[in-house]
Amino acid sequence: MTRLAATPVAGILAGCFAAAVALAGPAAAQTLDTVKERGELRCGVTTGLSGFSNPDDSGNWTGIDVDVCRAVAAAVLGDADAVAFVPLTAKERFTALQSGEIDVLSRVTTWTLTRDTSLGLNFTGVTFYDGQGFLVNKDLGVTSALELGGASVCVAAGTTTELNLADYFRAKDMTFNPVVFDAISQTIEGFASGRCDVLTSDQSQLYSLRTKLDDPDSAIVLPEVISKEPLGPVVRQGDDEWFNVVKWVLFAQLNAEELGITSENLDEMRASDNPSIKRLIGTEGDMGEKLGLSSDWAAQAIAQVGNYAEMFERNVGQGSPLRIDRGLNALWSDGGIQYAPPIR
Amino acid sequence: MAGPAVPTPPSGPAPWRNPRVRAVAFQVVALVLVLWVFWTIFQNTLTNMESRGITTGFGFLDNTAGFGILFSLIPYDETNTYGRTFVVGILNTLLVSGLGILFATIIGFILGVARLSPNWLIAKMALVYIEITRNVPLLLQIFFWYFAVLRTLPGPRQSLEFPFSAFLNNRGLYAPSPNLEPAFWAVAITFGLAIAGAVVLVRWAKRRQDATGRRFPAWSVSLAAVVGLPLLVFWLAGSPLTWDLPALQGFNFRGGVRLIPEFIALWLALTLYTAGFIGEIVRSGIQSVSKGQTEASQALGLRPGQTLRLIVIPQAMRVIIPPLTSQYLNLTKNSSLATAIGYPDLVSVFMGTTLNQTGQAVEIVAMTMAVYLTISLSISFLMNLYNRAVALKER
Fold this sequence. Notes:
The complex is a heterodimer of chains A (344) and B (395). Chain A is α/β, with parallel strands linked by helices. Chain A has a domain at 131-228: D-Maltodextrin-Binding Protein, domain 2 (3-Layer(aba) Sandwich), CATH 3.40.190. Chain A contains 14 helices and 14 strands. The N and C termini of chain A lie far apart (47 Å). The model of chain A is unreliable at 1-11 and 23-27 (pLDDT under 50). With 395 residues, chain B is of the alpha+beta class. Chain B has a domain at 82-176 and 245-390: Orthogonal Bundle (MetI-like fold), CATH 1.10.3720.10. In chain B, helix 2 (82-115) packs across helix 7, helix 8 packs antiparallel against helix 9 (304-334) and helix 10 packs antiparallel against helix 11 (361-390). At the A-B interface, helix 1, helix 4, helix 5, helix 6 and strand 10 of A face helix 1, helix 10 and helix 11 of B.
């Protein structure tokens, strides 16, 4: 169904974009006020990628990208369920954000210079440090990406993956046939049916897509990681207030993990004497006010969604079918590179 | 200045009461309003994009694209520019549309004639075909060919093998490609000369028959010349042609020419879908020719084939051409559905990947629209020229 819907949506979005930009007022919209007034956050997600953003059997969206939006909704509106999820293909995502169709894009999107500048967007942080890899069929007997010369490669349109792929094969002086699809789900179908030898995407996505194969053990992820893919939420440029809100909700969740605050022990933590915990929970200081939010903004996000570790483990970590290790995504104090500035 | 009383010409009504002046004035006002609206939208867009920090302009066309394209008619690699991806996309669109139009027309004419066949089986088969293809959405037909037919083919190592080293698998159709050596030009030139000679011969034979009534077997002589002479030269030049055979190497076949499954699926779907419509247009055109024409032609002793070719079709063309033009335009525009299965046409490559990598939606959408507009208007123009040539000449 997504596949059928994707094509017209791409056209309509692109078509509406000119009209939307042409008719909107010259000043950048105050997104925070708009969201509060609407009582709902509009969040752009994938059309279905388990672990990151995927509708479950009863139609509820789950995943780490989904939880990022839920945390923002909890902090801004006090209700983690006040989110309207807008499924987008990679091709549609930036247009949807630029035209104001969504308030925040949380869709396994890699932070790059071009996107930060000429697209008129801002990345608010990194929710997941990833890197691009290759998924191949075990039967091919390939053990290294250097043996992939001449292969047909399935890839999603409009991604950094598409560019890294070309760079990698060029640097290694190998040829390849890119088979480019609109939706992530189409790439795994193409791989499963044998249209391509190789599926390339961010490694985390490869593990997630592999679970969709009839026999997940028939394919392996090659050891090579050919790029840096810091994935994070994106907002429009020129609205610093909203940029700060989205940025600091993630920082609050990271700080909560560092301080040992979880959704379960939050109530006990309210009695804590630690000034850092007090400032984060909002029992001391006016941190929420400075962001234009209520004083319990971070407490709401932690209570309803959890700290970063809870969010990670539930969706992509040991508590999920993907079983991805924290690795780079561990806190800086645990040997990873997740590091949030202090709340003070 | 007093002068002799010149009888002034009877002055018309005041300008605001003059209907012609008023009509022109209203049109001018309307035109200015329309232009003003468009200008405002244009200016507003520019201002807004600037204030939102979105890059504008066409400078991006000179930047390196950096992504691969599956299938291109001109040499293309990742180091080429976005401008070149635009050209690659246009050519891929033209290729599938051109071949689609050609084959849809051929199949459509056969279907139209078959629909009216006195043979019950042929007529009903054509009817069933037309009703199925016309009434199933084109996108579904594309998916059918791509997912249900071509995807289920075996992989490269278990390819279906055809005569002359052609292979079919789920990566596409591989066939030998000709390697032309320099001497092959002599064969090509002979072929061209033979065709020119045949045209002259047929005209001469017709003139002679008109003048004297004597017949000359111009067609068979021409055919012999067109086929025989190039073959003779080919043999004399020592067979200046070798074949590059596809062979399994690593993951895929290398060498030869390759038709990717995305192209085959799109081309089949566009052709078979549009042929259904063209079949109905041809049928209606033929039926618009009065029955008396057929009867008169038969009374003159023309055979059924001659009646169709010389009497009915030329008159039917007047009815067929205008709706046929719309079908050609539809086919070209429908080729943009390529993006659904990943055939790298203009919409998929340029309005898809290039748009997403550069983010310059307004410029790219405008350029893409301009291309389709240009292609459509060109088809219209050519078909209108043809229409004028076959239209009823009133004298």
